[in-house]
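Hi L., both proteins are below.
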Amino acid sequence: MQSARLDRLDSLRLSAAVRLRKLLVKGARLLPDETRRRLERRLRGREEALQIAGSRAFVVSCAKSGRTWLHVMLDAYEAASGRDLGVFFTHDNYIRDVTGGDGRPWHAGRRTIVLARHPADVAVSMFHHWRHRMTPRKRWINRYPDPARDIAMFDFVLREPAGMKHAIALLNRWAVEIDGREDALMVRYEDMRADPRRELARIVRFLDGTVDEAAIASAVEFGSFENMQRREREAAAAPDAPRQLRPGDVANPQSFKARSGEAGGWRRQFDADQVSQIDALVAANLDPYYGYAPSAAPVAGAAGR
């Protein structure tokens, strides 16, 4: 979906930027570790800046919030309906290293969707991704801990900067940045799981002003969890399939990108005291805009200013 939005000149510029990044990163290998990290993040941010220039709308989300699922459904909707939605997906990470000098968020002035998920579910899923799928390069760039460290899931989720703290900080920032904007929409993963047709239709209507109901039904079916995990298994058997489309280990269900697809499953990972600690952290730190009160499950449709 993203690359199709670039015209030929922008595509050439993006290709040149990627080649330049690889060349500069290779040439900077003798520089101090933090200098090299800042350099690569800025170069990756420049690449994202080129990509957002050709997009009409953005989906921003924490990693492990259902972005791939929504991406697949919107691609399928475009194919079934013949509509071009012009959406760019980002975790709002590297782009921050090269934009925002005037104090305005980089997504101001264009339609923006914040895709939210309970921070504990985000962190649990990220724990498995970090353990089983994340490349050493990505761990280094984003300051994730060494996987050789024996970090318990609860400690990763509650205490590591890469766990809930990171997710809460991003969600809080986006809540402020989209507050009062008519060109912004907040969508929760939990509501998508509860009623994917309703939520996908809401997203498409926000992006395009109109909805093709038959295309919505087709896109939801195509993007079902069972279909996504089946395609991931098929990719594991295809040597030429991109690495990001394959499980880390086809015999280990925790290494799949489409790992469980569950909303609220984090509660079963911890004992009652640990659940209480996580609930307390969310209640004390997460903007109530998202509606993630300390209850058995988020109340559908409860979020809003």
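That was the first. Here is the second:
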Amino acid sequence: VKALVAGIDGIINLHTDFQLEIPQIRIQVDLAAASRYGIKPGDVRRAAGAFIASEETGDIWRDGKNTEVHVWSMPEARRSFEPVRNLLMDARDGRRVRLGDLARVELVPTQNVVLREASSRRMHIAANVSGRDLGSVARDVQERLKKVSFPLGYHTEILGEFQERQAAQGRLLLISVVSAIGIFLLLQASFGNWRLTTLSFVTLPTSLVGGVVAAYVGGGNISLGSLVGFLTVLGINARNGIMLIEHYQHLERYEGETFGPGLVLRGARERISPITMTALTTFVAIVPLVVAGNIAGNEIDHPMAVVIMGGFLTSMVLNLLVVPSLYLRFGASRKDRPSGLQYG
């Protein structure tokens, strides 16, 4: 698995679990040889286990304390594996047979620690990602892993930041849908006009164009921080749009302005200062996050700040140019519409 993953573009610092290999005696019973002597494979393994690691044979109770009694070989017999090969076993016909004639005894390296999770053995193959987005690298890893045939009971799982991001994106998608419905209902409650509500709602995604461009220029990675930035831009743009259109309606209803270009121009001039100040204040607040770059501890803040900065540029254009034009085209009440002009 490590060799396959190593060839993927964007993978850096690839390593397995930090394990030390220690020598261990491995005994593989020759079933045919054991059968000839009438010795069970389990008896061979138990005899070798008692010789190397001891075996409990009884208990001694004294003064209310229990002391286990173990059978074990002499310490000098355990300093190499030759004495294990020469260990004598009782055959069915009474002969004595060397364990080395019944099994293959060899010294092999093994891990010094057996790691388990949820009652299953595990081994981590970890890596960092650089130069590509995490999702693309994870998909390439998944494709490579399909080429690996694992023994029965073994499988692979991709964990870490990718798994957490997938779960967070699922929750964020659900929250986004609920938020979009809430924004639509708030627009309708503010405008009292389904036509204006629908048009304002449909134009909201255009404010995200700057955020998409900024994310592309900043590396082309859409991360969890980027998604939070998009939601932030969407919410602030909806707020600015509501305040602008409500100001138009206020000028018409309470200040005697006649619906037309004069109303729209006056409303835009009076709202340009708060909209611009909101954007500039936000810019000043997030500039340090953008300048700091994608450093350690800034993995979410940096992409979020980049998207917000780019999104606010298109949001200002939308609120100061697009929304006034749409209001002039579709915001007139029926009594204010010219008879010769048809509105969609």
